[in-house]
User: Fold these one by one.
Assistant:
Number 1:
Amino acid sequence: HAALSRRYVLCEVVSEDPRCRQCIEDRALGLAVRDAIARVHGDYGLACCSISFTVKYLNAYTGTVLLRCRKDSYRLLCSSLPFVRYLESRAQRYPCFLNTLHVGGTIRTCQKFLIQYNTTQLLRLLQNCTNEEERQCIQKSLLSCSLTEEQSQSGDEEEDDGTE
Amino acid sequence: QNILTVCFSVGYSAVALNHVIDFKEKKQEIIKPVSPSELFPSLPIVQGTSKRIKVLTRLTLVVSDPSHCNLLRSTSANIRLYDIIAVFPKTEKLFHIACTTLDVDLVCINVTEKLPFYFRRPPVNMAIDRGIYFELLYTPAIKDSTMRRYTISNAISLMQICKGKNIVISSAAERPLELRGPYDVANLGLLFGLPEGEAKAAVSTNCRAAMLHGETRKSACGIVYTVKKPRRVEEEETTVPACKKAKTQA
């Protein structure tokens, strides 16, 4: 069981073009990451990392991505993530970059981190709120963030209206 | 300005805006630095703390001739206005001078072409003792494959001499999307041959120390700077201050 240890890498997609978020889907992202690994670490790196590599979770609204890889090759993966420069989907390229947030051994630790991170992000959005309605929406989301037994993803509760 | 917005959202707590002076061109004068408060009327708050983000000004002198260094020795008023001074030596002699005698905070290491000289241990050790940091850029490595090779070879040859101490990694981002977050830059440090502890320091404590070195230079003699140590319980990526350099947009 220990031999199959995995690492889960949590990142967020940062881009200037709002349409980039729409093309966050597992195939496009997986290809972009694999391409970056191949460019930086060559065939050996790509082969090592591909063993147990998948995109586990995506949230197109917040741009959050959870990747999984084997524990032996997570350094290869993490060191290639800065080299992702764009996402490609439907023959369109959207420049972006990946910001690594957290590396954990289980999905649960990444989830806990994500809840905490989203809470601070919501707080920042709260500070930049321009009208009362948005303020109340965000406050409501903040108060309802928690880790429940059904593994509900707190990322879904974030409001992504024009305050970005 | 966009670059800075991205910096802040990604978790940096201090940014330095770089102004480059290349002496190969004629009539270079050191102008007063643009005051950050003119560019940003209100600075956002660092993620996770309640302090405002610091924006510093920085000057980089590209020197290819010993006469260019005279500018540093002169007590030009404008030089003192910059928070951080960096020098980019182009020859071995100048590298030696920069490490041993020049009053700078950072020595830039070329990452875009093969080094014309090899590093030697004596000047590097002297620089480390004097509190001068060596700077590596990462944006060229992200953009282009050839640059990547030069960056990695130059970085590794530097590491062999200095054992990874006193390294600062910065971007020379001209566009917001050329930036990378602090955790990622520390991972890049691993690629450059830094040991893991030093890689994290290259983004956080070393930058802070370079900033303080700049402050001591501004005041007449050394200063003692007391700082509340951040609680170790919190994650390093969000609380330890990091320093980034970005070129101002024309």
Note: The CA atoms of residues 75 and 133 of chain A lie 44 Å apart.
Number 2:
Amino acid sequence: MAFTLPELPYSYDALEPHFDQETMEIHHSRHHQTYVNSLNAALEGSELSGLAVDEVITKLDQVPAEKRTAVRNHGGGHSNHSFFWKNLKIGTTLSGDLKAAIEKDFGSFETFQQQFEKAATTVFGSGWAWLVKKDAALKIVTTHNQDSPLMGEAVAGTSGFPIIGLDVWEHAYYLKYRNKRPDYIKAYWEVVNWDEASRRYKQSS
Amino acid sequence: MSTTLVKNSALRSALRPTAPTAAKRAALTLTATRGKATLPDLPYDYGALEPAISGKIMELHHSKHHNTYVTSYNAASEKMAEAVQKGDITAQIATQPLINFHGGGHTNHTLFWENLAPKSSGGGEPPSGPLGQSIDKHFGSLDAMKENFNAALAGIQGSGWAWLVQDNQTGALQIKTYANQDPVVGQFHPVLGIDAWEHAYYLQYENRKAEYFKNIWDVINWKAADKRFK
């Protein structure tokens, strides 16, 4: 059973002007599609191809050594981007248990924002910034390339259940923001889907 | 020809208020900023590498990305000097990744601009002499080397560079990839590098990086590579 590119729950221009239509289209229909195609190729004939991708990336040690890097990169890419599209929506508000938890673990929402922005800004090269739930607390972590916190400490250098996440690969922002990654990060706050984040936070308890 | 160069040079300088003139740079080097990195001038106009690399990319790549590595390296370097002076070892170790990243970025891009040239200045002209012979010896032919090189570039995950490097002990040529801005150091020295970071091609090629890897050979300056070959 092959992995497939999930449809976006919105049109390519739905996140304008913060995330531009052209980037959304190329990001989804080309970059993410390529991760899906490459993952299918890497897992052809493997039992793991019947599992959900979020499970596959926790079982990298079961992948034959010569395929492991490909499954890590493309499985991570497919998992991360599938999560990312749902993590974006204009007009949501942070509230309820998640808001309380952020204020508790970071002191204030502003402090959390600053720390998240710093983490996202200082990723060297390609990677992601995440808010994760780990051991009953919220933490900000970063991963390299297409690693996911779901892969665990031994693989990704960190762990946790993603609540929100931001792609800081240059392809995620270059067409509109050029080299100005901080501007892209600021724009993220206009499109982060707090409804989905709250749902995930509840799910993780 | 010379008036065009002067005009563009002045234009470039005007666009880069932080880049000192040659005279100022010389003066600065002798005083408080000894050891400070500076953004090198390009020996060609931003648009000179078209159609392989667009002028828009060259301008952003040089005046923004490379310039940021320069200023960030200088800031990290100052932090390091302070930490050394205070004898604060943990601070030194904490600052080291910034030196690696921004210093590597400055080094890599400086080498990169040198190993690119417009077709009118020999860009794309194949190597001759000892380097050409060594390439034939190690790879079979220049085309075989390029295929190898492009396969290495295509295989880079995330951000990085591919380099034709020379072994400092044996003199042998090899193709190696380096992640992020890791510079070529240690056992090898750099002969020729190609930037595979998305910012190097995205505005023009989007995700079609194989096309970028194919086209850039039209503007590779083998004369610079010749000089680096020992």
Note: The longest helix of chain B spans residues 55-86.
